[in-house]
Amino acid sequence: MGTAWNAYDANKMSAGKADGQALAEIAANDPRIVALTADLAKSTNTGIFGEQFPDRMFNVGIAEQNLFGVAAGLAKVGYIPFASTFAIFACLRGGEFIRTDAAYQKLPVKIIGTHGGLSFGAAGSTHHCIEDFAVMRAIPNMTVVIPADAYECARAIKSCVDVPGPFYLRVGRGMEPLLHNSEDEFDFEIGKAMHLKDGNDVTIIACGNPTRDALIAGEMLDEQGVSAQVINMHTLKPIDREAIVEAAVKTRRIVTVEEHNVVGGLGDAVAAVLAESGKRCILTKIGIPDEFGPIGKPEDLYALYKLSSQGIMETVMELMGKEIEEDDWDDED
Amino acid sequence: MPNTNVTIDELKAKAKELRANIVETTFSATSGHIGGSLSAADMLVALYFKYLNVDPSDPDKYDRDRFVMSKGHCALGYVPCLAMRGYLDIEEVKAKFNKTGSAYGMHPDSKKIRGCDASTGSLGHGLPMGVGMLLGLKLKNMDSKVVVMTGDGECQEGSNWEAAMAAAHYKLGNLIWIIDRNKLEIDGPTEEVLGLEPLADKVKAFGFKVIECKGNDMEDVDRALAEAWANDSDTPVCIISHTMKGIGVEHYQGKVTSHYISFGDSRKDIEPILEYIKNTDVATIK
Predict the structure, then answer these.
(1) Interatomic CA distance for residues A173 and B254, integer angstroms
(2) Which residues from chain A sit within 8 angstroms of residue B167, using beta carbons?
(3) Could you count the other beta carbons within 10 Å of the beta carbon of residue B211?
(4) Burial zone of B43 (CB within 10 Å; 0-12 exposed, 13-18 middle, 19+ buried)
């Protein structure tokens, strides 16, 4: 047995007893909610959703194309399906079914991609997923959210029911440390960037698991005399353009941080907004530099790709040393 | 329940009308996927004029049967059939098919076409969606049928078999998978491109009850659908409908080249074709 909720359950591991209820909570009051998985739930532990709603859980076996086709069919007859599998198998193995069945028909299929980024480190590149941001944000009608921790995941799951059309939620393996202390201590609105720390010299825009490291890096930078603003861009699409342009004008330096290929993800989304804005700004993208990552413990891989707090801090310091040409820019507010 | 008031002769007449509409739509669009549309025409007519519980005045009727045209390129047959059933204006379909800005493209768009239950075009998507629809309908304790029509070449897509496994596993006795077995795909006969046989045995092995019929013989189509509709077991049904690609257009029927054809600019070119359709009982074509 298993479900979309499975992703959630994984996050619960790091959130202690806090959040296992999210999908089950909303499902209790909303009979439209059903869940699907492709043989990626724990076989004996059905989880909270499965225990409470066994009739509303469907395991389609190891068949990701069918997973999303079936989810679309359920949505066609009035359900809100949460379909969960590893991020890489969702976005690429099942990708065309997500695109053509769910997105083209604007159906409320909620996709939860687990084990995103390098979080399944030792599993190697077959199971790493550094392409899903690019794939998912290029699909029309799709909303893309990458929560920074289990509490945000809970909020996103509760919020996404009201988002029309398909929705992609990317999470890690469930062993990541928490950014927040509880589910209720922060404002979470899909499409609205979350300001984690104020600063005037540079802006760090992060999403997903490395967001916590970005915040720690911001605090480390304070000690180095660099005032860093830290933004949690949990919603990749639709992206909060206003927050990006404001950051550009305020700090003129931006570093993006994502557990994804630097091609096609958060960094490129931010770059596009910056270029279109006409504001003077220099950007450095931290992410996987368009290569398949090595095998290793996730924390080792994060350090390798400067996704750790230390790596982020060092990258910011390098950026602080770069000159910004003043030439023809005339965007001073 | 099937409409028992309609006779085989009436269905045959409707199938002739649909074939003529397919030819005229192709002429208007200048070209089209005529082969698979013509091979499936008799089955489409029998479904829409006798078997499917649908209501053109209420396309979203909650307890309706669902039909998924998984071989979406045969919108050329499916959409005129919807029009003839009363969902759309047939003259508008003919005039606008494939035209810029039209709701009626080469592959059907459920967001734009009244009565169309699923957008299709990429092969191997209909059966998974149909399985999902039926899981949902079953959860609602509804007894509606879900009918999915695939091509035979389409069965080379692995997703069909993923869905077939799920259909049997979840005991979806109200699922009817129709395979339009016209034996040809773009690059040649299915058995030369990538053999499907023994197809019936394969489908049976996946947990379906298999009914075979002569898919261009209305009496046999009716027999097969009656048997499928009467299924009250937990076993999903598959109808392998043996048909001829392009049937009704004399110079193309049974030929690989019928998959997608263009007509000339002159309406005179299609007049003999329409005459042939009018005067021919397709069940007699060998």
Answers:
(1) 54
(2) none
(3) 20
(4) buried
**Contact across the interface for A68 and B163, Cβ inside 8 Å:** no
The shortest C-alpha distance from A32 to chain B (Å) reads 10
For B212, counting Cβ atoms within 10 Å of its Cβ (0-12 exposed, 13-18 middle, 19+ buried), the class is: middle
Residue with tokens 């499907």: B196
Count the Cβ atoms, other than its own, within 10 Å of residue A246.
Answer: 18
Interface contact B108, partner A, CB < 8 A: no
User: Does the domain at residues B8-284 carry the CATH identifier 2.60.40.420?
Assistant: no
Which run of H or of E encompasses B126? helix B126-139
Residue type at A15 in one-letter notation: A
Q: What is the mean pLDDT of each run of 10 residues along chain A (333 residues)?
A: 38 38 84 90 51 90 97 98 94 98 98 93 94 98 96 93 95 90 94 98 98 98 97 98 98 98 98 97 98 96 98 98 73 62
Specify the amino acid at residue B28. Answer: S
**Any idea which residue has 């299929």 for tokens?**
A109
Mutate to test the interface with A, among B117, B162, B169 (most CBs of A within 10 A): B162
ipTM confidence score: 0.95
Helices assigned H by DSSP within A207-320: 211-223, 241-251, 266-277, 298-304, 309-320
Hey, what domains does chain A have and what are their CATH numbers?
5-170 (3.40.50.970), 194-320 (3.40.50.920)
CB atoms within 10 A of CB B45: 27
